[in-house]
Amino acid sequence: MADKNGFFDLSKTTLSRRTALKGMAAGAGLALAPGFVRYSQAQSSAPIKIGFQLHRTGIGAAYGRWYDRTSAAAVKAINDAGGINGRKVELVIEDDGTDPARGAEVVNKFATQHKTDIVFGTLFSHVVIGSAPAAGENKIPYFVVSEGHHVASTKLNRYVFQPGITDVKSQIQSMAPWIAANAGKKVTQIFPDFAFGYDHRDYLPPALKAQGADVIAQIAIPPTESSFTKYFPQIPAETEVIYHVMVGPAVLTFVKELGEFYGSQRPQLFGFMDSLEAVDINSPGLEFLDGSHFWEGSPRYAQPDDSAAQKAYRAAVGIDDNGAAAGDPKDVSTASHMFGCWETLYVVKKAMEDAGYKGSEDRAKLVEATEALKEFAEGPEHPQGPKTFNGKIHQCFGIQNISKVEGGKLKVVHKTKIEDGLYEPEGDYTKQAL
Amino acid sequence: MAAVAALALLPTPAFAHASDRGHVLLLPTGYYIAGGALAVAISFLVLALLPPAALDRFWRRRLSLLAFGDGMRTIISLTSFAGFALLIAAGLFGSRDPLSNPLPLAIWTLLWAGFTLLQGVLGDLWSLLNPWYGPWRVAVHVFGLRGDGTQPSRLPKWLGVWPAVILFSAFAWFELIDPAPDDPSRLALAAGAYWLASFVAMLFFGYGDWSRRGEFLTVFFSMVARFAPFERREGRLSLCWPGAKLLAAEPLPVSGMAFLLLTLSSVSFDGLSKTFVWLGLFGVNPLEFPGRSALIGIGSFGLVLTFVLLAAVFLLAVLLGQRLAGSECPFRQAAGLLVWSIVPIALAYHVAHYLTVLLVGGQYALVALSDPFGLGWNLFGTADSMVEAGVVAGAESAWWLWNLQAGVIIAGHVLAVLVAHGLAWRLHPRPSRATLSQLPLTLLMIAYTIFGLWLLATPTAG
Fold this sequence. Notes:
- The structure holds two protein chains of two kinds.
- Chain A is an alpha/beta fold.
- Chain A folds into two domains: 4-166 and 335-398, 3-Layer(aba) Sandwich (Rossmann fold), CATH 3.40.50.2300; 169-296 and 400-421, 3-Layer(aba) Sandwich (Rossmann fold), CATH 3.40.50.
- Helices cover 35% and strands 19% of the residues of chain A.
- Chain B is an all-alpha fold.
- Chain B folds into two domains: 18-61 and 250-462, no CATH class; 68-240, no CATH class.
- Chain B has 20 helices and three strands.
């Protein structure tokens, strides 16, 4: 931890993503120049190249913007503290267009053209699932920050890891004890009628059952719906908690119409921040959410009891106390997910150090070193909180936040325990050949 | 295989961002749509009551400003070419990130979204700035090639502007359908190859001929410049009313009509293709948008379909108008003249549609241009400028953006009615006949106003 002080100094310097990316383009240029001789991988001064598969364009662009900022900040922090195994880290960005086919192409490009050491990044599950086979075929470690259950399901391959963000199955399960104890025992779920909603439909009821509460109704809303009033009469009158996970542009309409339906007499509301990532909680139409609760991966708003590590992380990434870009208060961050980029890069650092990683010939060693990791302590490298890591399913498990909308802010009222989100592993990647 | 099958059944969480369109959904857009339709209808009625000769005289007024020669044209074009060559190099060797590399930002944001607007406001800047004229002049001089207008055209007359129509279609397909038009090296190859092919064509067919009939950007920009309130004639720059230059236009050949309608239909399809309604038609879940690669077939179909529909409806409106007025003027001539009234609409769609791209992408462009090769340079002192993506975020921005976009769309259609009215008077000197002939076209413009506002108000993916 000799670099700890150096790390905290970061918060005082302005972030420049260009610094993090510096040198990368030159490499790309040189690689195309005739007669260019590549750095020998054994040469210790050559930077470690991390292929950053980024949602730069397409439906995930708002997430991409913040994944980029967070990752650039983490790389700067790592480099300022001496890099990995004494080598600088370089991010090579390729846009996946939030497109699974393009995602696979980009992974191939990283492996064969840019010759990066690993691939890192992307969020959207369909892109991860579309890209994972390419990572397996190229035998290149692929560290995702997706939050989907697909990695932990062990249906991808041995090269895919999710060590920086808890998967959605665990997130949902860990909400159940608090909901049953504090919000109510009779829960009605409202969710969009596709895969994202099905996770909540399938994982919540057994978790609630175990806590002595019940899902009494499940209302699936067609994804193209933009008016919701006609669905509300389906909510049973005895409902104590409405568990809502709507996503897409019609979320604000959904909340507004729910408010018009209930007026001041409403059941408890519990939602997932996925619905409102990058959206100001004080937007017109969202007034009805006042007093309701949300899952948050990492708190959007600065909390009175924030750790020094959390404060330093926020400053380094460049978000203000309201979770928006410092200097651009309308650019609201994707706080619940982007911390995973920061933490994943530090897991990569740890695993590369453990493996004595020197170059692509050590990729198998890197996979095994990552699988050997057990836990990550809360601190500058893991500002969201402590985590355990299950090397068999390549998935980490961390604490989750339950926040209340109060006075136009989100106030953390409960932090779950890691154990709340643990479940039986569904397979074992380590049995697959490398 | 088993693993793949299992994956297909696996829940796949996705996080459709509650985008800024969400704020627009809460605005009373229905009133705007009704108001816009009414405004277009009323402008038609008002025009019908005004004496056309006086209106025409009023509209043809010019205010002479200053002498404006062509002296610097070669130098400016050569500079522009040098800049273009640098951008291509940046596309090949600079950052792989489309928001850090200046090439995609220069082509899509500055040139396509931004420069079109400048051209519509300030007039034909493209004739000075295009990156072919200077190099062509140099080549003619150095190799002693034939200049323009010295020999009969090598391009057969029947070809019209069809080469430009085909090339513009390819451009629109690349922009709207190709999986990765922002990819710097992909774009560098496409743009570089297009420059070279056009240059060769200009050497062979002559600069004037090819840029008027084959080079689609020149064809597009000169059509857009017809709208601008500046006119350059015989070395003098004058001020005129917006759209006034359209009144003096010659009837377009069939290929020219196709080109103009295609510019409007393609930007319309860009909007349409992201709507829940369009995606729903093909069973595509907009909240789990499968990406551009999965929609190549549907997109290509849609691009053709919107063009065919727009062209059919436009021709039908002209035909009906001619019948109503009992006109003896050939149909082809009437349609070729009246199609000029599409220019203000196309420009309005373009501005409304690319406004947010321009506001955010423009900032990224300023940063990227300062460090085109990602080497840590700071050529213009903007390399470390903060990009404020929040400028288009939130309810407040959504409100003023919507008002601006709606205003532009409605103004564009009102001007189109005005232009069509003036052109109809050229076809039908009797005012009552001219008005009657405009009835179907006005209905089309009202419908297109509604469609244009709906595109900006309806839920969209991403």
